[in-house]
Design goal:
With 263 residues, the protein is of the alpha/beta class. The chain contains 12 helices and 5 strands. It has helices spanning 3-16, 20-34, 42-69, 90-97, 100-103, 118-131, 141-153, 157-165, 182-195, 212-215, 220-232, 244-261, and strands at 107-111, 136-140, 169-175, 200-205, 234-238. Strands 2-3-4-1-5 form a 5-stranded parallel β-sheet, with helices on both faces. Helix 2 runs antiparallel to helix 3 (42-69), helix 7 (141-153) packs antiparallel against helix 8 (157-165) and helix 7 (141-153) packs across helix 9 (182-195). The structure holds adenosine-5'-diphosphate (ADP) and magnesium ion. Magnesium ion is lined by residues 118-119, 173-174, 204.
Amino acid sequence: MSSDTEYQKLRSHLAFLRMGAAAEALPGLLDEATKASSKLTHQRFLEQLLAVEVAATEERRKASLARFASLPSPFTLAEFDFSAQPKLDPKLIAELASLRFVEDATNVLFIGPPGVGKTMLAVGLGHAAVAAGMRVYYTTAAELVARCHRAALEGRWATTMRFYAGPKILIVDEVGYLPLPAEGASALFQVVSQRYLKGSIVLTTNLGIAGWGKVFGDDQMVAGALLDRLLHRSVVINIEGDSYRMRSHRARAEAARKAVAHP
Ligand code: ADP
Ligand code: MG
């Protein structure tokens, strides 16, 4: 077989196996290998060719995980300013960032008033998990409830429940901002129950645990059962303090005032 035919066959094998990145790297690597000075062994040649494909596949996988995760902002944990939350222990957040909590399906609850960085921390954990190759999905409580409502109407309840059971980490943002209709509370309860001891939930809420009855239309039974499952294995982080937005707004206003007072 001529070397041209061999080359064509090799290209067509790579195309058949959908190894596009390896196919693209092939001419360059072959050039390198056939140089008189080349020390490329057969083994090393094959390893390098496959390494190109492995890297490309890995990259595609990460990109697809990142798209699937639907994280609403690019914030990472590294950008979190701990000086704004002196009571929040950076070691605790670092421990969470190690993602060990995912191994035994521990839940993480961020509780605090608006603007203190709950979403940022949840999203930052989400990005860390995606970078580690985990399947993550972000939703707000309102979106989750609306989606379950549609699913019930369209006969896709079981599929939708499987969807929420799937990811290693389900982020449910903004629980408690809007009161949930009884049907919504029951949807959230089912999602939490399904994931119980199987997959982590990272949840943010503006309500202290005692206030949860209200979100569930004062259905203490559902609220209690849901909290039982959510808290059984969990890390609860209460964030107090000023809204970061207000803080930076205040700092800007202060700077502007000073500039005006001492031009
Ligand atoms: P919450 O979800 O608690 O209402 P967010 O996470 O949405 O608050 O934070 C509000 C805004 O303030 C965001 O733009 C966020 O990036 C920023 N922010 C809040 N806390 C911090 C912090 N400690 N360091 C840096 N940015 C912060
Ligand atoms: Mg938020």
